Queue: 2 jobs
Job 1
Amino acid sequence: MNEEQLTKPTESADAARSEAPQTEQAAPETQAEAPADPDEAILAEIGAKLGLDREATIAHLKHRPWPRWVVLAAAGLAVLVVVALAMSPRYFAAAAARERTYAALRDGDIDTALALISQADRSVPHTRQIRGLLGQVLIAAGRENEGEAAIREVVSSDNATAWISEGRRLEKIVRGNQLFHLAEQAFQEKRYDDAIAKLQEMVSSQGDAPNLESSIGWCYLRKAEEGGGPEAAAAAREAFNKALALDPKNQDAHDGLAELDKLTTQGGSK
Amino acid sequence: MIPGILIALLTFPGVIVHEIGHEFFCRLTGVLVYDVKYFRVGNPAGYVIHSRPKNFSQQFWITVGPFIVNSVVAVVVALPAALPYFILGAPMSILHWFLLWVGVSVGMHAFPSSGDAKSLLSSIKFYRAQAGPLIVLAYPFAWAIFIANVLRFFWIDFFYTAFLVTLVPKGLVALIK
């Protein structure tokens, strides 16, 4: 078929980029002037080539299969996409392991965090987010050199410093979380002096924080209730006031002061 | 400025899928396809010659076809490459790079050409009486195609592709999380 004699109703997008002229199908108003219906002319031309009459030509065009190479290329591409997708679950598993690592770090459980992220690193090696976090957890676990080396493997030297200092910050956070976990345990077991000691250790390493101060206040409050005397009540008030000085909206401290007022008004302890 | 022919050569899978998009919707709507050039070094880089649509919706879907087909294919092909990279910053394998190239190439040719828009506009006039509800979409769509083709100078097709192969996978990751 001679392409030049045919209209080109649709073109590639890129043809437009290079300002290709778009030859529209014969416009309706020009149809009357045309010697014959262009569709019929094309059908006759194709039919003549194939040795088919009009109806057989239409049937041939309607049921013409897709070119073999198009089918093969589409199948090949589909296989590649499936293969690549089949590789994805381990990335999802590693992403889930990363989330569990962060949860373990929040609980101050550095051993579990290290085990989880090491396993993820073995399944998707040399992956920035996993090996980088492994490095940070190693630093948090006190294995500074190993951690730095792991980070430098996957993070550009420009960013490595930030990743390493984040690891060191993580160490403080994990230590804080461990202390808070121990303080909570001591509080539940009514070992208030132990709980206060752990919380004060956190204050000395992390600095003043309203939540830490109100937690100390609650420890003193419970100690006062358990017969700790006016000194414990005064220490509780001091801690709650300190928390409110840092954060006037700290609800925990407001609640503590209210309960402390009730206790001191009643003038006694349990 | 990069010549269109060079872009067509670098992104030839997109030209092929664009023409397949036209042909697919011709077949789907029962319009006879007389001839297809999936790719050639020339202008246009590809075309589909088909019989005159019998109604407006056939013309509409044939025009819109590449936008739908290329967008879907670009996302599906680039997704397996983009997911590990965006979730975890995983290194890209040759397979991932290949899929990303195909995905970007296909996305770059998602917009119908100005010629497609002209076909759509002239068919609005021709089929006005029988156009049906799709005609409401046809004018804004045709003008959106014209504007997109003007904005090609500013690489809008590239930015649209970037949206398809980066933001869509990122959105999916956010949904999964």
Job 2
Amino acid sequence: MHVHEERCVGCAACMPFCPREAISVYGVAEIDRERCVGCGLCVAYCPNDAIEEG
Amino acid sequence: MRACVVGAGLGGLLAAANLAKEGFEVVVYEKLPYAGGRFTNMAYRGFQLSTGALHMIPHGEKGPLGRMLRSLSAEVEIIPSQPQAMFRIGGRDYEYEELPSIFPLRDRLKVAKIIAMLKLGRGAGSESYRSWLERQIKNEIVFKIADSFTGWSLSLSASEVPAGEVIAQTRNINKLGGPGIPAGGCGGVTQALVEVLESEGVRLLLKQRVETIRRKGGVFEVLAGEKESFELVVSNAGPKATAQLAGEILPAEYRRAVSRIRGAAGIKISVACKKPMLSHSGVLFTPEARRINGINEVTNAVPELAPHGEHLLMSHQRLAGGADVKREIELGLRDLRELFPEFKKYCRVLAVQVYRNSWPVNRAASGVHLPPATPVEGLYLVGDAVKPEGWMETDGIAAGVEEALRHIKASY
């Protein structure tokens, strides 16, 4: 998963939906690549189209 | 008659429910996998956080939202905050009525006069609330109290909001009373509205993004996966996104005006507490904090928003344009640690949420009064950019929907 920093507002709407608790948000979302399994839920739940697969 | 609602935020859900009751065949398109937009819950570690708004309705069950929910038979209890608000000044908490007493005698009368003027709703031209206050008094604490109020409720400083807007809001507070907390939080309201839509036969389509809105043969052609035709389109996507979707069917001048609308930004910090940090369910305004404007602890009214025996505290602070977001967050966290000496022992931060740009506190700052009707007949706006004067937050959204419905009923 890749976060576009210019589109991410830091609203954390993605955070609770991550089944692996791989997302931390402090002004902008960061995804822990070690924990991420690439399920793509964060992509769907982002209101700002700021997360992309890959 | 077929009506299309773009976006299932609070404004879209309210509009859809009302239009269905009026006999329209309604389809709601929502790009996200959930309804409610910035006004619903997200469960996190046993706590009910929110996607945006605080779990609070400015005028409780008596305001436009409470009234509209009742008229739609949306079943949601709204528990009045008790007391409505406290102000922490010099380490002590005061009620609104007690505020004059904290000032030295020479200012006490002036503060009492300001409170009376706010109540009577007199004496403001187009000036800002800050400069209106400066004409009445020179006292830093007064300005800080004003900033904490406008920061909490509007995510603006007192110099960014017209005095007339604040006076109209104060009039509504005096008339209808202060906030209430919906049982189930923001999500309780959203869920109740989704149930109304279901019982009215409204099609609520999630993960369905509207691509374009065009006009063809006297009807609107909405492209969202497939093309569908509607006599009426109500957009909850915000004025800028709506202008993009509708493109050339809106006059260029209107699109230019919309592109210049300024929003309001803020930061919310949600905190889990092992014991209550506040003794009440109202707002604690924090005029002397570095950044935080106010705090509430909704579990004092609705314990279900936290795991058994725990509490959910939420702070809100205005985010000024161009500010360094990470530094603003740090200052907010420092405020929390200083406001509550036991913070380190009993509290842990669950989430820091920033609302700005495409996911703001408000898509139009309070004081901007964008009408729900657009220059295109049959195309309306609802949501937090369309709040009539004097109505804030979610009550502003409901009052805007009321205004849109009055127009629609008169023309259909």
